[in-house]
Each structure stands twice: as structure tokens, then as C-alpha cells.
Amino acid sequence: MLLRTLSDLACESAEVRLQDDPRWGRENCILLRRTRRADHGPCTHTLSIRAAWGGTELCRVAGREIGIDDDSFLILNHGRSYSSSISATHPVESLAICFRPGLAERVCGAMFVTLDRALSDGDTIAPIEPEFMENLQPHDRCVTPVLRFIRAHALHGIEEDAWYEEQLHFLLERMQRHRERLLAQVDTLRLAREATRREVFRRIGFATDFMQTHYASPIDLNEIAHVACLSKYHFLRLFTLVHGVTPFSYLQRKRARVALRLLRTTAYTVAEVACTVGFGQRSTVLRAIRRWTGLRAPQIRADRLADAMP
Fold first, then answer.
1. Under a CB-based contact definition with an 8 Å cutoff, are residues 239 and 247 in contact?
2. pLDDT at position 158
3. Which pTM was predicted?
4. Do 2-184 and 250-300 fold alike per CATH?
5. Domain 2-184: what homologous superfamily?
6. Tell me: the pLDDT tens digits for 32-84?
7. Fewer beta carbons within 10 Å, N or C terminal of the chain?
8. Is CATH 1.10.10 the right assignment for the domain spanning 250-300?
9. Which DSSP string corresponds to 186-224?
10. How far apart are the C-alpha atoms of 215 and 203, rounded to whole Å?
């Protein structure tokens, strides 16, 4: 197990240094850093999962830019080459967990073995290579609690390899369950062919990542539909089918979520937050927060940081 915690003053890329270690790519690796500036890659990784808090980490993979922030996590499959960077006025906390080769295959294989079969076969497990969807996934009650649990122990300086090994098994199980739920969600789409359903879900995922990453910019329906390689007419219908809301509503909800977080964790004025997240006016951000959270202006800067977003 490799565990590195970087301070805000660290400027050298931890992942570049780790690649010189003979254990890199062969053992599990947990990389936790807190920094305002980071720029590294491209480099090839084993299966990994990434999350960030307090700002955005920009990940570049397969010609796309994906912004990972407080609202979501990202899973990248084994052998994926990507680079990432952080550029922020406040420290951003970034967590990357890379699984050693073969671990995910054995964990996922074991999940499909009955107890009777496990008792008779012992440690003999037919590996199953999982193929995860490489799109931003909103934090949930399945994967996120394990991510936060590992993060909390890493922050407290826990370095017992055996403990982390157990937690990564739990994390992989949760990731596989999350994947199965996503596939079940794909199958609920009112489209005849399975291949069509999966392709629609993939393309809408590209557009969703684009919106999550560039929400602060004045993007429009034509631009978002172009990312999905669809006409805006087909895109509008399919996006609403997948998410249950229109692209505009989805974008406003994302902006409202970030605005609420900034108002509760920074000293920015409402007007400054409105400009930062892509709302044109102070009144617009307050209306959006009220719509999506039910909070009125006097309640927004409450001390509690309970998750009020749907």
C-alpha cells in the first residue's frame, strides 16, 4: 500500500514521483493531497476512483475534460491514460485510489459465487473483469460512505496496510453494486434495443459531464447537444428521458448546488457567487437556491452544512 499526503505547499506531482517506485502499478495506492496548484500526467493507471472536495480537479481523458468536485466521483478503468490538474484560489482536497491489478477481477468474481459454491471451491474464484461507466457519478449512499471513511482515516495518518486492504475490498463491492444499478437504470429507458439504450446513456453521460464541468460558462443547448453528437431536438428529448429534468433545469440545479456551498463555506457576497457559478444576477441565484433547496435568503448562510440538495 502506498499512502501519500501532500500539504498545500507541495508543488511536485506525487503521481510522477510514485511512478519511480517499483511498487507503483503493482500495489494498491491511496493518494491524498491538499493543494491549490497541481499539474501532472498524462500517465497510465490501473482501475481507479477519484474524488475532490473544496474545489475542482480537472481530469483529461479520451479527449474530454471532466471536472471532479464536491458533488461527484469518477471511476476510470484499468489501463486508462489520463492527466489531471488543480488551479484554485483555495486549497482543494483530492483523493485518488488505484487498485492493484487483479484485485477488482477477483472481488467482482466472488460476488457472483453462491455460498455453497464458495464452501466447496475454497479460494478458487473465476475472475470477472468489471467495465465501469467513465462518467461523473453523483455522491450516493453506496460508494460515497466508503470513500469518506477511507479519506477520514488517511487524514488521521492511519497507515496499516491490512486495514486499507479490507476497506478497498468493501469499496470495490460497492462500486460493482453501483454499476449494476446504473445498468438497471439504463434498461428502464423506453427504447426498444439494449444497444440503443446503452449508447443513449453513454452520449447523455458525455453531455452531463460537460455541463458539470463547464456550468460556470454561458453554455447553450446547441453546444451541449454537440458534445453528445445529437441534434438539439433529439438531445432535449433523450436528456429529459434519462434525467427526468430538462438540460436547463439540470444546469440551474448544479449552479444552485455550487452557489449554496460557496455561500456557506466562503466570505463571497451573493453577487460574487452569482458571477462565479454562472448566474447573471444576484436575484437569480437566490431564486434558484430557493427553488432547489427551499431555503430563503436568511437561511442560506446557516452554520450547519447539512446537504439540502435533492
1. yes
2. 85
3. 0.89
4. no
5. Regulatory protein AraC (2.60.120.280)
6. 989 999 888 788 889 999 999 999 999 999 999 999 999 999 999 999 999 99
7. C
8. yes
9. HHTSS-S-HHHHHHHHHHHHHHHHHHHHSTTS---HHHH
10. 18
